[in-house]
Specification:
The structure holds two protein chains of two kinds. By secondary structure, chain A is of the alpha+beta class. Chain A has seven helices and four strands, in the order H-H-H-H-E-H-H-E-E-E-H. Chain A has helices spanning 15-28, 36-47, 52-61, 66-75, 95-99, 102-120, 159-168, and strands at residues 87-92, 130-135, 147-149, 152-154. In chain A, helix 3 crosses helix 4. Chain A is globular and about 50 Å long. The N and C termini of chain A lie far apart (45 Å). Chain B has four domains: 17-118, Glutaredoxin (3-Layer(aba) Sandwich); 144-347, NADH-ubiquinone oxidoreductase 51kDa subunit (Rossmann fold, 3-Layer(aba) Sandwich), CATH 3.40.50; 357-443, Roll (Ubiquitin-like (UB roll)); 446-537, de novo design (two linked rop proteins) (Up-down Bundle), CATH 1.20.1440. Chain B has helices at 3-18, 30-33, 37-50, 88-92, 100-107, 116-119, 137-142, 147-155, 158-168, 180-189, 210-217, 219-233, 247-262, 293-300, 329-341, 343-347, 380-387, 421-426, 445-459, 465-482, 488-504, 508-512, 515-523, 525-545, and strands at 22-27, 57-62, 74-76, 81-83, 110-111, 196-201, 237-242, 278-283, 324-328, 357-364, 370-375, 397-402, 408-411, 435-440. In chain B, a hairpin with a 4-residue loop joins strand 3 and strand 4. In chain B, helix 8 (147-155) packs across helix 15 and helix 23 (515-523) crosses helix 24. The chains are: A alpha+beta, B alpha/beta. Chains A and B meet through helix 2, helix 4, helix 5 and strand 4 of A and helix 2, strand 10, strand 14 and helix 19 of B.
């Protein structure tokens, strides 16, 4: 059992703190079952991904069957049941990006990701270094093809430029 | 805030704006932000302060100026000039009025606002883009913001608002084009006091980003449209269902709702009247099918976004079984101008059956890409060749694609079609939400059809069998075509499955999923045939080399 923080002091940014924020978010929604998606958004924001324990807790607190919570969490692309990688690259595969050559960007990223995974194969288990995802359309069609690397949009990017950007953040071949 | 206060606040803000010698509007929409607009704005603000000009020059952020391919864009309010791809030192030249050398240096970065890209536009939905600061309520008030809501709640009866809307001839901008006035009246007629307004901001079509730009650039306009709708149909609660991917739009909407509630423009007493209206945001979690209205309702209720059979339609039984009005962002953005200027004014714009304007997100291989708002009835050729400047490197247009995965391609020879709901449906495509992708000779139409089918396969919610299994089958067949392995029977099967999906799917996603394929069959059958012939020749060649 951890001691509750002494009163009058802001709790430190620990796991307990996140739990508190999570609890507060649920109570703001009055633990209503229809706020499930909002609650899952908050949970993922705080904890990075949705663990089985988290999902069980949500089901208990919102008084929903666990199957319903799991059903919703797996229905939407946004929710992740796996831990996040250190770096995330999202390739937009909207129509404009697709015709501008986005598939080649996916290939370049996948090559790099596989190289990293191979290099890390003998290290001890930890989060992967790079995760490659695709988006339906990020709505930046004027900048096609676009890649979102760790939250930053790279407009009109070529495979070579993308590889240079990966070098910069230490995702080397 | 009373309507009189509203007028005073607007007048005060206008006077404040006129007090500046110059106002520089930096586009802070997503497109320009990713080209460094935020840094440019910060730098420009710092330069203004360094030169002690803050009493004379105002630097503010604003919504999408349209020509996203040339960002970051800055608009000079005094003469309306727009400058593109500015570096901080070049932007500094904007602070030296009357300096001929500075003006000459800027000339190369000045966009020709007489260019058809700008000149052929008629802006209603985007009228504030490039003028209003999306993060300041005052800025919206100075542009007649909330005056339509004030007029509605203080001068017009519910019936009069409905009549104006009906007279305007506005049709839903989400794709199918259902008359908005009729929909509102349906909801208004329902008995009961619990009704809901839902704004569909789950713009999911790949290649469409105009809703995003309205939400980011002019969030109050959407709230005002929703509140007027609430007043007209008798609803006190609105939900804005926004795509989770649109982080900036969500942030600006949250800010706008807070400001509007604080000033009494939303909340228990809207503009000091007896009408109460509250808006809550619901953030989508990445499911294309949630653009379908019954799936969207299921998602707001906190469940899996799966559609249900209609009828009953949402105007009768929608959110939590109550009458619900669902319109999309662009539709709500048209409401305030209609109430301000009257339905007849709106009905005078456009064609016989399609009124007003439509915003298109033009992207693909064109010289200029970005947002354009044109009156209904504008020929597609004008948009593609004159406004977007044709293909960038002088190549030839092969086809355009509208309506995303629910629409189809339109070949170059049909580009004289006017933009209206019926013409586009007649050509086998649809208006959709307004994405317009231009493809050149290098684009393979079969590959594009395969791309859209893959999209529908992934996004099918899996509830009904025709869509769940049909999209998988059709995608596999298209893979065979792309690999040059398809035979005659594959072509027949593709057509058969297309008809089956269209007839038997539960919701719009499955019903329209075959459209991209069917339009390729209609306009580019030779491309599918080539694959077959290639296959036949290869088979013949293989047979010839085989020992007898």
């Amino acid at each position: 059992m951890t001691q509750p923080p002494p009163s009058g002091r802001a709790p430190p940014a620990t796991k307990d703190n996140r739990q508190k924020l999570f609890e507060r978010a649920m109570s703001r929604q009055a633990y209503a079952g229809h706020a499930l998606i909002e609650v899952l958004h908050t949970a993922q924001e705080l904890f990075g991904h949705l663990t089985p324990e988290l999902l069980r807790e949500v089901a208990l607190k919102l008084k929903l069957p666990p199957s319903r919570v799991l059903g919703v969490a797996t229905f939407y692309n946004f929710f992740s049941l796996q831990p996040k990688a250190e770096h995330t690259a999202v390739v937009c595969l909207g129509t404009a990006c697709y015709v501008a050559g986005a598939p080649q960007l996916v290939q370049a990223l996948e090559r790099r990701r596989c190289a990293c995974a191979a290099a890390d194969a003998d290290k001890e288990a930890g989060p992967a270094r790079l995760s490659v995802q695709s988006a339906r359309c990020i709505g930046s069609c004027g900048l096609a093809p676009a890649v979102v690397l760790d939250g930053r949009i790279l407009p009109r990017v070529s495979a070579a430029q993308l590889e240079r950007e990966l070098d910069k953040i230490g995702i080397t071949a | 805030m009373t309507p009189e206060d509203l007028n005073e606040r607007a007048a005060a803000e206008r006077a404040r704006q006129q007090g500046f010698r110059e106002r520089l509007h930096c586009c802070t929409a997503a497109g320009c932000l990713s080209c460094g607009a935020e840094e440019l704005k910060r730098d420009l603000t710092a330069q203004v302060e360094a030169r002690a000009l803050s009493q004379q020059v105002e630097v503010q952020g604003t919504g999408c100026l349209g020509l996203c391919s040339r960002g970051p864009l800055v608009r000079r309010a005094s003469d309306g000039a727009v400058f593109h791809e500015l570096t901080p030192s070049e932007a500094g030249l904007l602070l030296q009025p009357g300096d001929a050398a500075a003006e000459a240096a800027l000339a190369a970065k000045r966009l020709d606002t007489a260019h058809p890209f700008f000149a052929h536009q008629q802006r209603i939905v985007l009228e504030n883009a490039g003028r209003v600061d999306p993060e300041r309520l005052e800025s919206y008030l100075a542009a007649d913001g909330y005056s339509a809501l004030a007029r509605a709640v203080s001068e017009l009866s519910r019936q009069e608002v409905l009549a104006e809307l009906r007279a305007s001839g506005l049709r839903g901008r989400g794709g199918a084009g259902y008359p908005t006035g009729v929909k509102w009246e349906l909801v208004a007629k329902q008995p009961g006091t619990t009704k809901y307004i839902v704004c569909n901001a789950d713009e999911g079509d790949p290649g469409a980003f105009m809703d995003r730009s309205v939400l980011e650039g002019d969030p109050h306009r959407v709230l005002e449209g929703m509140a007027i709708a609430g007043y007209a149909v008798g609803a006190n609660q609105g939900y804005l269902y926004v795509r989770g991917e649109y982080a900036l739009a969500i942030q600006r909407l949250q800010g706008a709702i807070r400001q509007a509630e604080r000033e009494g423009l939303l909340g228990p007493r809207v503009l000091d009247s007896a009408f109460r209206f509250r808006v809550d945001i619901r953030i989508g979690a990445g499911a294309f099918v949630c653009g379908e209205e019954t799936a969207l309702i299921a998602s707001i209720e906190g469940g899996r976004g799966e559609p249900r059979p209609r009828p009953p339609y949402p105007p009768e039984k929608g959110l939590w079984g109550q009458p619900t009005l669902i319109n999309n962002v662009e539709t709500f953005a048209n409401i305030a101008p209609i109430i301000r200027h009257g339905g007849a004014w709106f009905a005078a714009i456009g064609t016989e059956r399609s009124k007003g304007t439509k915003v298109f997100a033009v992207a693909g291989k064109t010289a200029h890409t970005g947002l354009v708002e044109v009156p209904m009835g504008t020929p597609l050729r004008t948009i593609v060749y004159e406004m977007a400047g044709g293909i960038a490197d002088g190549g030839r247009v092969k086809a355009i694609q509208t309506g995303g995965p629910s629409g189809g391609c339109i070949p170059e020879r049909l580009l004289d079609l006017p933009v209206d709901y019926e013409s586009l449906v007649g050509a086998g495509s649809m208006m959709g939400s307004g994405g317009l992708i231009v493809m050149d000779e290098a684009s393979c139409m079969v590959d594009v059809a395969r791309y859209f089918m893959e999209f529908c396969r992934d996004e099918s919610c899996g509830k009904c069998v025709p869509c769940r299994a049909g999209t998988v089958q059709m995608h596999q067949l298209l893979e065979r075509f792309c690999a040059g392995q398809a035979g005659e029977h594959d072509l027949a099967l593709l057509k058969e499955l297309g008809t089956l999906l269209r007839e038997a799917s539960l919701c719009g996603l499955g019903q329209t999923a075959p459209n991209p394929v069917l339009s390729v069959l209609r306009y580019f059958p030779e491309e599918l045939d080539q694959r077959l012939h290639h296959d036949a020749e290869a088979a013949a060649a293989a047979a010839a080399t085989e020992p007898a």
